[in-house]
Design goal:
- By secondary structure, the chain is an alpha+beta fold.
- The chain has five helices and three strands; from the N terminus they run αββααβαα.
- The mean pLDDT is 90.
Length: 105
Amino acid sequence: MENTENKMVGQATPEEIKAWKEKYGDIFAVKCDGHVAYLRKPSRKALSYASVAGKTDPLKFNEVILKECFVGGSEAVKTDDALFLGVSAKLAEIIEVKEAELEKL
């Protein structure tokens, strides 16, 4: 009998995660209320589109990032408002910004 006590809705197999890493690079698991979604880093194009959409509707930024970065897992995180808001609180953490230096010459 399969142990489903700790299994989350949308949980991927190690093989799926490995394939996503090979295709997209870093993969992030965002967990909320028994559901898990797997996300990749957003592209510059996705960030640009999300930023423009977010100017008129602040939640639209998170919707665009979630849609563009979602590679697998529970579809409910995109459709259930409570799960979406829970996941939205973590989306900023997948956007990596490198530290730059400016030097006047």
